[in-house]
Inverse folding.
């Protein structure tokens, strides 16, 4: 058991899904060719001026409310001054002392325990451009398309006590913001980025140890690994009599280690001051209430409701809630066909599997809730077997036809007709005299084998219940 | 407060401006004079005074979230000192 | 006919009666430029675009080298912006073009508007048309000199601490700094964003009102632009000041005011009284702190506004030989060392200093608070006065080179003009006399926010009852 306690704080930057950038009318769009989505404002051309996107502020308030934070009745924007080629004005417009939201919390589940993670603040700011380094030609190239993309930076209190907790927090935060629809939280596209502060201290000590700042993690897994690495490094350094220096480290995914930044600013003196180009904003209580009314049900509330309203297992409820699209699909399906558990089984099982195989989201799936329940109903009626049902689902997703059309086309309807089934059963009985003997000598469970054999012969089309019944009857008759 | 050569070097570095040794003395004297002059503000009692950032009180100025035409790629790059592959080219940045 | 010596409203009359065409006026002014520009050096360059002679107000205009004009080289008279051609028009350049304005050339200025003499321009100084050994004032010195030397019918300048009014005073013309937010700043290259305002430099008050009609108004691209209707400023041109209350701050007539300037101002006050104006002595106890306040607020904002000139995108880029820190930082430091002149460097360093860690509260925050006190002083006076009258400058134009080695004494020449910028209120400078040496003297009026009309009315009345504005320099 370690003699140290780990203390972690996270800073998460999320790109907001507005239509335009935060301070200009350029499209907020990912993946355009370099420097094709820029204007004088986001290029920082001399004389250009910023004007705040109303939607960006509303999204900021939305996120703040979902994080149980206080919305500041008065907010302003400040300039954070530093030089970097991806920052076209030589300062970033951010919020210093009056952020949009402060003093909130997010409940997470970690190791079976529920825990509240304090949210220190959430503020709006503009994103920077992108730099590509060309070592061969000894130059760097700047693309300013991303410049001015609205960001919300969400800063936790140093409340996280392990890399696993940090990982769980990130997943909960991501899910919450996806539910709100304010960000797509896609780390691969860079719309979610996470920096971490980590320190350790002897158990029982209240003063914080020296922290290091970790950057350049491009997945939640990488955040966890970087933190694990760094915690180990801190422990080893301190127990061997060394000292941790406050510094910024870059995570190197290939080498699986943190590396000191070479070009570190000698001092961070950002010279924050109120941006005179932007006016202050008063946020009326009525606006806050308006936004609050429009908040969607958040994942944790939905989870609890799914347990009580539909009697789902925690496992199923979790699977469904983990994606707002899936949860909505599920509820739409339940409205059509009031067998929630059966639908949940199908969604958490075959439907999710199809989504994973196809690497698509539920919205991209070629099936409606009505279409899915039509299939489930056929299975429940016994028209097709469970197994065949899964094939029908695959076919529905491939071709866009209805369950009934596919069952008919492929002749998948189960054979329940006694005479046709007896034909198969007699054959199986003739081929397996020893099994028949076993059944007769008082081992009825051996009949399962015969059912399986008969099912095989029917090409999976036989009704298994009916088969079982008929086999038992036949053997008793013999 | 007086201004030292070290202060001048510090702000010059923050402002990314090289100040050669032979100019350092002159700038230190100039800045020292000005800082000495503005010290007169310390005489005033401003404890209960609110700061003014904007002389004309205007607030809540928004833009609607509607896309408008941007510069063309050629217009954007027309100002570039140096360009390569559709990007602004700069000396190699070492992280 | 000397079209170049006429006011814009006189030209408009000739256009209407068919006695002259905009093309004739434009070409006549160009000829005048050819004749006197080598002496005055009001322009940094003439524009490449030819006018298309359409629109209502086809008046030949000079534009300060600080407003973005699409496709023209715009540099703020700084090496660091050499070669920069903005791909867009400033909000008010759009308005000028739409109104038919014919842009003659880009007028000289102090580098990034840092100065009161035009001497810090990277192109060298402009000269005062009344005495070529003297400065035209600054920072809009080129604009003022062009109008006074009859090299432009009117001009656009920008005013952060007096940069329209002081050169107007030195050159014997009319200069107005509008209320903050009255005129769009979109496309005005920022010096101090909370103080900057674009305004007209003209030969008389009627032209000032006409140009205000063209450039005023809301611009959704400038958050600080104020959305309120624009009056027809020419309606304010009423020859009557009876009963209007004119405040004279006792602080403005304290020591340090030149005796000739004082005498001219006293005569002007007497005339306004005779015309029915009611004069009150008032006090603005915090105005002696205005210069100190201004140099903190303005340089702090400037240090940040000028950070974008770093050699990465446009303008100058130095290519350092050898390696000191790293390729990028070396490029930054050498570009900015080579690109900025000494005054720009001083102001950037001062602004950086007052914002830096540990000094913010003592300097920047305190200055913002004193700014409140100065604004409160003015608000208090405007409860009982319609305008406040002061000299525009403590002296007439000084000699080229006289103050260049003493930045602080240069700063103090803005002592009367700075309060209006700090408070965001409108202020005008009009000619009110000449020194024995033949240099113009200016009178400044400050008004309530958005009450440019009152300034125009009193200025117009004064002008109708004096001849100062009709005098022309011999060149």
């Amino acid at each position: 058991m370690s003699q140290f306690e780990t203390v972690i704080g996270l800073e998460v930057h999320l790109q907001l899904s507005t239509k335009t950038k935060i301070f200009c009318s350029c499209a907020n769009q990912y993946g355009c060719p370099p420097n094709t989505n820029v204007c004088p404002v986001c290029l920082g051309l001399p004389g250009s001026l910023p004007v705040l996107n109303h939607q960006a502020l509303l999204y900021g308030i939305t996120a703040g409310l979902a994080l149980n934070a206080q919305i500041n009745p008065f907010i302003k924007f400040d300039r954070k001054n530093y030089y970097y080629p991806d920052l076209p004005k030589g300062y970033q417009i951010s919020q210093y002392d009056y952020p949009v939201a402060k003093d909130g919390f997010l409940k997470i589940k970690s190791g079976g325990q529920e825990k509240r993670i304090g949210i220190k603040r959430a503020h709006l700011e503009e994103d920077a451009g992108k730099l590509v380094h060309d070592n061969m030609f000894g130059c760097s190239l700047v693309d300013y398309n991303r410049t001015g993309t609205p960001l919300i930076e969400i800063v936790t209190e140093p409340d996280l006590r392990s890399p696993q907790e940090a990982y769980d927090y990130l997943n909960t935060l991501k899910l919450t913001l996806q539910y709100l629809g304010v960000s797509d939280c896609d780390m691969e596209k860079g719309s979610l980025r996470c920096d971490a502060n980590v320190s350790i201290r002897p158990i029982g000590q209240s003063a914080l140890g020296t922290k290091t700042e970790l950057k350049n993690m491009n997945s939640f897994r990488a955040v966890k690994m970087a933190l694990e690495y760094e915690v180990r490094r801190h422990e080893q350094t301190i127990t061997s009599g060394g000292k941790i220096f406050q510094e910024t480290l870059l995570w190197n995914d290939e080498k699986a280690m943190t590396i000191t930044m070479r070009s570190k600013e000698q001092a961070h003196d950002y010279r924050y001051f109120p941006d005179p180009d932007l006016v202050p904003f008063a946020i009326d209580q009525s606006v806050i209430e308006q936004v609050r009314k429009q908040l969607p049900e958040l994942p944790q509330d939905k989870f609890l409701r799914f347990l009580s309203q539909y009697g789902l297992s925690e496992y199923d409820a979790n699977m469904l809630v983990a994606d707002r699209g899936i949860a909505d699909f599920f509820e739409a399906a339940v409205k059509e066909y009031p067998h929630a558990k059966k639908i949940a089984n199908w969604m958490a099982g075959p439907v999710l599997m199809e989504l994973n195989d196809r690497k698509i989201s539920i919205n991209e799936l070629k099936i409606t809730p009505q279409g899915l329940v039509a299939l489930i109903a056929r299975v429940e009626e016994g028209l097709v077997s469970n197994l065949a049902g899964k094939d029908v689902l695959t076919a529905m997703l491939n071709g866009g036809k209805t369950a009934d059309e596919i069952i008919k086309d492929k002749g998948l309807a189960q054979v329940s007709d006694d005479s046709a089934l007896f034909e198969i059963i007699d054959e199986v009985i003739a081929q397996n005299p020893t099994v028949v003997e076993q059944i007769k000598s008082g081992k009825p469970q051996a009949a399962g084998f015969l059912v399986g054999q008969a099912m095989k012969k029917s090409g999976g089309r036989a009704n298994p219940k009916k088969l079982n019944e008929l086999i038992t009857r036949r053997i008793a008759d013999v | 407060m007086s201004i030292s050569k070290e202060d001048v070097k510090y702000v010059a570095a923050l402002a990314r401006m090289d100040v050669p040794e032979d100019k350092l003395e002159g700038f230190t004297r100039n800045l020292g004079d000005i800082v000495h002059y503005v010290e007169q503000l310390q005489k005033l009692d401003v404890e209960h005074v609110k700061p003014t950032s904007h002389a004309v009180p205007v607030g809540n100025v928004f833009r609607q979230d509607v896309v408008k035409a941007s510069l063309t790629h050629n217009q954007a790059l027309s100002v570039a000192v140096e360009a390569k592959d559709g990007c602004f080219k700069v000396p190699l940045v070492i992280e | 006919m000397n079209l170049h010596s006429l006011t814009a409203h006189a030209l408009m009359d000739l256009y209407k009666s068919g006695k002259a065409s905009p093309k004739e006026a434009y070409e006549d002014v160009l000829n005048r430029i050819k004749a006197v520009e080598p002496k005055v050096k009001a322009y940094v360059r003439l524009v490449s675009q030819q006018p298309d002679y359409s629109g209502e107000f086809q008046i030949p205009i000079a534009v300060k080298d600080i407003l973005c004009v699409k496709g023209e080289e715009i540099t703020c008279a700084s090496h660091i912006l050499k070669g920069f051609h903005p791909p867009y028009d400033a909000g008010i350049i759009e308005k000028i073009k739409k109104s038919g304005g014919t842009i003659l050339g880009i007028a000289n200025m102090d580098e990034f508007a840092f100065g009161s003499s035009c001497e810090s321009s990277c192109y060298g100084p402009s000269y005062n048309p009344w005495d070529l050994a003297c400065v035209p004032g600054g920072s809009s010195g080129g604009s003022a000199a062009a109008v006074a030397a009859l090299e432009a019918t009117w001009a656009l300048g920008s005013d952060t601490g007096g940069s329209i009014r002081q050169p107007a005073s030195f050159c014997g013309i009319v200069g107005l700094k509008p209320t903050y937010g009255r005129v769009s700043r979109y496309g005005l290259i920022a010096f101090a964003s909370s103080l900057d305002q674009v305004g007209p430099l003209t030969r008389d008050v009627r032209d000032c009102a006409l140009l205000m009609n063209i450039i005023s108004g809301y611009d959704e691209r400038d958050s600080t632009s104020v959305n309120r209707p624009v009056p027809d400023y020419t309606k304010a041109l009423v020859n009557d000041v009876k009963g209007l209350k004119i405040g004279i701050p006792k602080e403005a007539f304290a020591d340090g005011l030149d005796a000739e300037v004082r005498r001219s101002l006293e005569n002007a006050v007497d005339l306004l009284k005779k015309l029915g104006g009611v004069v009150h002595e008032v006090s603005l106890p915090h105005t002696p702190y205005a210069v100190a306040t201004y140099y903190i607020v303005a340089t702090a904002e400037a240090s940040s506004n000028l950070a974008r000139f770093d050699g990465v995108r446009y303008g100058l880029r130095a290519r350092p030989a050898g390696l000191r820190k790293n390729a990028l930082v070396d490029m930054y430091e050498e570009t900015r060392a080579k690109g900025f002149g000494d005054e720009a460097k001083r102001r950037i360093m001062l602004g950086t200093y007052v914002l830096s860690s540990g000094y913010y509260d003592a300097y920047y925050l305190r200055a913002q608070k004193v700014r409140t006190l100065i604004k409160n002083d003015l608000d208090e006076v405007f409860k009982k006065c319609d305008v406040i009258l002061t000299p525009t400058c403590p002296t007439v134009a000084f000699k080229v080179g006289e103050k260049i080695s003493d930045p602080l004494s240069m700063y103090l020449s803005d002592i009367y003009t700075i309060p209006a910028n700090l408070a965001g209120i409108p202020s005008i400078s009009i000619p009110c006399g000449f020194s024995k040496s033949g240099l113009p003297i200016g009178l400044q009026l400050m008004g309530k926010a958005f009450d440019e009309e009152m300034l125009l009315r009193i200025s117009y009345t004064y002008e109708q009852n004096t001849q100062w504005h009709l005098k022309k320099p011999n060149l």
Observations:
- Chain A has a mean pLDDT of 91.
- The first helix of chain A runs from residue 54 to 66.
